[in-house]
Amino acid sequence: MRFTTLLPSATLALGVLAGCARTPSTSGVASPTEPPALEAIREAEVRRDLFALASDSMRGRRAGTPDELRAAVWVAERAREAGLQPAGDDGTYFQFYPLRRITVATTSRVSVSGKPLALWKEAWVTAPINSRLDGPVVWLNTMADTVRRDLRGKIVAMSLLPPTPLPAPKMSLWSMRYALAAIGQQSAALRARGVAGIILTADAATEPSLEFVGHRYQDGQYLLPSMPVPPAPIPVLLVRQSVAAALRAPKARLQAELSLNDFQYPSINVVARVPGTDAERRQENVLFSGHHDHDGIGAPVAGDSIWNGADDNATVSVALLAIGRAWKQRPGARSALFVWHGAEERGLLGSRWFAEHPTVPKSSIVAVLNGDMMGRNAPDSAALLGSTAPHRNSQALVDMALKANQNITKFTLDNSWDDAKHPEGWYFRSDHLPYARAGIPSLFFTTLLHPDYHTPRDEASRIDVAKLTRMTRWMYATGWAVSATPQRVTQDPNFKLER
């Protein structure tokens, strides 16, 4: 889809949503510890918005599609109704940016000994690449075979081997994690032997979920135009177990004509603002952050192909709307800036773009309060990532968040996910990260992963709305403290992430 494809509907949306009344200034000194509009964050309104944004009609809000645009327009319209001012480009609520997408072209062909393999049904190309292979297949029984033979320039095939270490049991997306780790480890070892092409046949752990796993490869790669393309030095194919017999046969031969598509289309951030009441500090912004996109239409699981993304991340999208309504009712001394990022699921692309091209002066952003997945797991548990070293970049900001939780929401906090050695690396997987890298004090509010993460089972009916409302109030109270405190929060000296 070309950039221009979405412009007519986008232009109409911009015209409808551009206007917004200004927030009247109020007088008086605000207390950092007494957020004045907690009761304006209402569970019934959070529930209403959640079930709308995470409904099947939004079709999973996939980045770069009309479904993401539809969700962005919905968010902007709700922000306008709440009285938030447009703070995107050209007096609108929107900030468009270009997505670069690289996919395996539909003209690609794969066959074994003259028999074609159906792409995305029997064979998956694990990375887009322009390549032509035509030659005999060398079957390897074990990795030990790689040291017994000269494999330089050969096309090799073997069964997929379990990765080391295995993903933790009962972890969400276990089969995906297993397959990605196994393919990565095995193909790296084979590439080191100088092979020209790799064919891996699914093992017993991967075969039942091949279409689920393979959807990731079919989806291709998403980048901003300035980002380097991940290298794909040689073709790596994943095939069904049923293909193994043909690959083992004497004189087995692979013929593959692989090509890629490289094109751009738009994604979108939604940006709104409530001006502050202090004559000087209103030029500074407390940025509330979330993402409105998810995974769209994907491989069916139990007959359901819509990946609704209720927890990830409709929960925070509607939380920001609730915070906006509270802030509009009682504005803080500093201004509140709300950014609903697009294309987070494609690699934090919306937040990367906004951090590089903010619609307000970057120096005016005092702190970033980001949320991702705030509505599941035990009712009284939560996590605050960026609260412990090496991820903490502002002790003052952390203290405000912990104080707000102590005084108001009283969650039991799980700090283990903030550990640099935690296997999930969860700190590096949400929209606060580009801001932290840019030197802006940043925190990440979450209630952590669950078995429905990135599956069609992540639906609004499974969200603990009461807990989500409490998490929303915690974010609001923290932001209020940042807004009301006379001194700006500052970044810790010598802050440096481990990667």
UniProtKB/TrEMBL annotation:
Keywords: Signal. InterPro entries: M28_fam, Peptidase_M28. One of its GO terms (biological process) is proteolysis. One of its GO terms (molecular function) is metalloexopeptidase activity. The keyword Signal applies. The keyword Cytoplasm does not apply. Residues 1-18 form the signal peptide. PANTHER family: METALLOPEPTIDASE M28 FAMILY MEMBER, PEPTIDASE M28 DOMAIN-CONTAINING PROTEIN. This is M28 family peptidase.
